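Board notes (copied after class):
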Amino acid sequence: MIRFFFLILLFINIAENNLSANTIIVGVNQTYTSIQSAYNIAKPGDTILVNEGIYTQTEYLSGTKGNDKNNIYVISKKRHGAIYRGGSEAWHLSSVSYIVIEGFVFEQQTGNGVNMDDSGSLVNPSTNIAIFHCIFRDIKATGNNDLLKLSGLDFFSISECTFLNGSLGSSGSGIDMVGCHNGRINKCSFENMGANSIQMKGGSQYIRIEKNFFKKGGQRAINIGGSTGLAFFRPQNATFEAADVNVWSNIFIESDTPIAFVGCIRSKVVNNTIINPVIWIFRILQETVDPNRFAPCGMNEFTNNIVYFPNNIRTIVNIGPNTDPSSFIFSNNLWYNHQNPSFNQYNLPVAETGSIKGKDPLFVNLAQENFNLLKSSPAIGQGKSVIAPIEDYNGNLFEINNRSIGAIEFQKVSNNDDLNTSSMLVYPNPSKGLIHIISDLIKGEHLRITIYSIQGNFIKSIPIITTTNPSIDLQMNDGTYMYIIEDSKKNILKKSLLLISK
């Protein structure tokens, strides 16, 4: 039976297998001793491979060297072996597009760890950027200093990265986004942050935050919106700080508040697990106030979340002036005060439907941070039926009609047909029709991709030529489709949704 699968929105155009691409080595006693010098001579499809070592210089990269068919790859030869230590910034990338960065460590900077921007153009964003398996840690600052600062980026992905020990002042973030669009942050971990783990503001839109782990994530672990100077909005006529942000399948432990809705609209916080917030469960605020331009914070949703909280929390929700809390939707959340199960001072701004209050969600092992559900959990099968998220925190599929509440779906039976069994990645998504596939499992295999309509009707099946990074022109009309990639034995390697948009 065809089911809804996880919509991978990985916002880069991965390179086709380019036989003319070169590998440029960077390191001590090499022709190129800096990434900057190697980048200046790089051509589309080239890989800049950085040797193991500690680097103290700041790398300044500007201009686009890749293209929509061939990225530039900047990779640490040994994962986490190339360490950029100290300085005001480790790297500063301006107007750089079509670049993949993997495996670096950035630590002990006094300004921002890594800074990526559009050179201040406001109308020509940097695009198609991917960051994998990097560590951002131990910033030596206490002010408005970010481990990763992004300004004017569109179509980007940050995956499986670690953010540790951010600026402990009142302004710094793990990831700070100003005027960024169509981005995905997934499978990252954030610990010991200052103001925020993740902040998106200044007209940011269509950001996905999913399957991440937050522990002591700061004053606002996720700040959906914020306060931005008018000169820095992208686009300049944006009427919101943030819009259409989805926070899905994450785990939050011990931030002052895990979620702050701040001048944002149409944003959804769905199927998360929240453990022991310190002051509030969430906040509804408006920090950029101009009723002639900016919509009040509203039309947002908080659904299918487990909230496991102590008795000394100040309030469930903190609502500020100039907001529209009555337009929020609250549905099917499980609320449990583990020190006072009879607690009833929820005081939500509107009535909630389908809620569960005063029942222990029954985690497998709270002390060991194992938030899987025991088979007797009241959260199992009680979630609101929603289209997304499709995958839970562990990468398993949520039930379609009777999903569980919280970030982790209860697993009745381990069924290979219901799981993605490989780390196969399909790029880009959304796509104009040409997709690229990367996986260590496909070399020499005879694969096939089968496309279905969103209703489950068969459309076409295409054999995949298994080069290292095969490319397929689907020749499809605009729309949302489901696909399955199988090997010759009918083992399902990948199931997901694909958006075609020309």
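Comment from the instructor: The domain at 431-500 is CATH 2.60.40 (Immunoglobulin-like). The helical segments are 35-41.
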